[in-house]
Amino acid sequence: MHEILSQESIVGGNASYTIIFLSSFFAGYLIPFSEEIVFILIGYAAAAGFADLYLTILVCLAGVFLADNAAYLVGRTGSRIVFKFKKRIGEKQAIKYENFIMNHSGKAIFVSRFIPTIRVLSPLLAGANRIDWKKFLTFDFLAAVCNVSVLVLIGYFFENQISKVLSKVEITRHVLSILSLLIIGFVLSFIMKSLFLKRG
Fold first, then answer.
1. Exposed end of the chain (fewer CB within 10 Å): N or C?
2. What is the mean pLDDT of the chain?
């Protein structure tokens, strides 16, 4: 009986990490939510017992890292996808960021990780403008470690704190928590995007 339960736990755990990896990989590209919301909710799920915190962060980083490098390679091949994403954020902002990445490549790659919408375009433009891959790799990885880890930890510690207050009303606790995290994610996205737009 114990062996059966252990096997079920392993299967469930593997499924959780697969979902976490896919969510991290497609966040911003196919998932219609900003990365702030995705990673905060993943952190919340880890705190609720669906996955180990440290392994969750590593899986998230792996998903983001592979997605960004795939986008870099797509940009390097001159794919029309680059133009589609440029159109998605607006020609003016795309030109602005393209100039930024050409003049301050390392800084631009790092900073873009914290700016909604722009972070999706960044690897594509880095590839399209032939930014050195090792340079892209280094700054993108450092930015991802900072950004992803903080967002997952926000969700994780939020769940721990809210559970102390609403521990007796399980369903209400999760509903209120998720709504609060969605609001936090939207606010973070709005603030970071506004700060970038003001620079223009």
1. N
2. 77
